[in-house]
Every structure is written in structure tokens, then in C-alpha cells.
Amino acid sequence: MVKNKTEATGPSFEEALNELESIVKLMEEGNLSLDETLAKFEKGIALSRLCSRKLEQAEKKIDLLLCSENGEISFEPVNLPEERDE
After folding, report:
1. What interhelical angle do 13-29 and 34-65 show, nearest 10?
2. Which pLDDT tens digit goes with each residue over 33-53?
3. CATH of domain 11-65
């Protein structure tokens, strides 16, 4: 399978989010040393920024797809499946 340029430069959004969640859980447990906590915090900030960039890129792609022939963006509601509490 051929990966695009974005995928080749880092983890996917899902991978980054999962790693960020793991870091938060570790930090919340409070069993890390100060140095470990700072390292995890730094990694978490980087992952948070990566996720944010990937979401912004996805939003821009959606905007392009919704752009009309005359260049105007038409914002239409998207019907997403409802989340279920399980």
C-alpha cells in the first residue's frame, strides 16, 4: 500500500490521539518522576499540536470539496451517526 506524503511524516490522527490519551492516563496516575512527567508533557503537547494540524487539514479538504463551481463555499449540514453511550 502506498502512503501519501502526510502519512509518511508521522503517525496518523488516530495513532497520535491514542498515544496522547495514554500519556494523559500515565500522568494522571501520578507515579512518574518529575523528569518523566516533563518528558511526557512535552510529548503530549507535540501530539496535541499534530492532532490539531491534522484536523485543520481535514477541515480544509472538506471546504474544498464543498466549494461550488463559482468558488463559493457552500456549508451544508452533515448527518453523522449519533454516538451511543455503552
Report:
1. 150
2. 999 999 999 999 999 999 999
3. 1.10.287
Rounded Cα distance, 86 and 29, in Å: 25
**The cell 470539496 sits on which residue?**
65
- The values of phi and psi at residue 2, to 5°, are -90, 130
Residue 32 DSSP one-character state: S
Long-range contacts of 82-86 (CB under 8 A, 24+ apart): none
Domain regions of the chain by residue span: 11-65
Note the pTM of the prediction, 2 decimals. Answer: 0.67
How many angstroms separate the Cα of 32 from the Cα of each of 24, 44, 84? 12, 14, 34
Does residue 2 carry a pLDDT above 50? Answer: no
Q: Per mean pLDDT, which range of 13-22, 32-41, 70-79 is the poorest?
A: 70-79
